[in-house]
Description:
Helix content is 15%, strand content 36%. The protein is α+β, with helices and mostly antiparallel strands. A hairpin with a 5-residue loop joins strand 2 (30-35) and strand 3 (41-46). The chain is globular, with a radius of gyration of 19 Å. The two termini are 28 Å apart. The mean pLDDT is 92.
Amino acid sequence: MDDTHFYEPANGHRLxxxxxxxVIAPRPIGWVSSVDCDGKVNLAPFSFFNAVxxxxxxxxxxxxxxxxxxxxxxxxxxxxxNMASRELAEQxxxxxxDLPPGHDEMQFAGLEPAASTLVRPPRVKVAPAALECxxxxxxxxxxxxxNKVGWFMVLGQVVGVHLNRAFxxxxxxxxxxxxxxxxxGYRGFYASVDEMFEMxxxxxxxxLSKT
Length: 211
């Protein structure tokens, strides 16, 4: 007997809540700062975010609907991804509030901005790390039938990286010490990275043949 719960998303999951965002977890949070053409700052978190390429470094995030962040990156072609820590979780959550257009979420959450080096949007000064990005592509997503689904994917190239020196240990960024947080689905589940373990990829063919 198959002991899995199988469902086709198009036909419903038959559970109290959709499990997909809990299954694909933890998902890093892209805490995106941007500016409009007048320089007004916007800061918003996106849990559909990740790295997609190492050389050159690229990241993506997706936006549901034409929100301020999307309009800003369309207009300026720039954004900053600030990495959120456990200590900044509540302030990160505050910036998800539906504020009127043009309202500064960074100021609303009591966060101090810091000037970026290569792009116009400021970064969150106390963030453990921040990625300055320039837009490569913005695309509205479509399903298998070609129907637009209302989600927009923003693909950007990382052109500058800020690392808080407090989390650099022997030249390595200490993710656990930074306590970076990630989304774990449903209404408000999150996780923080508090522990790491290391496994080195096997390269000895003789070792591989024994597995």
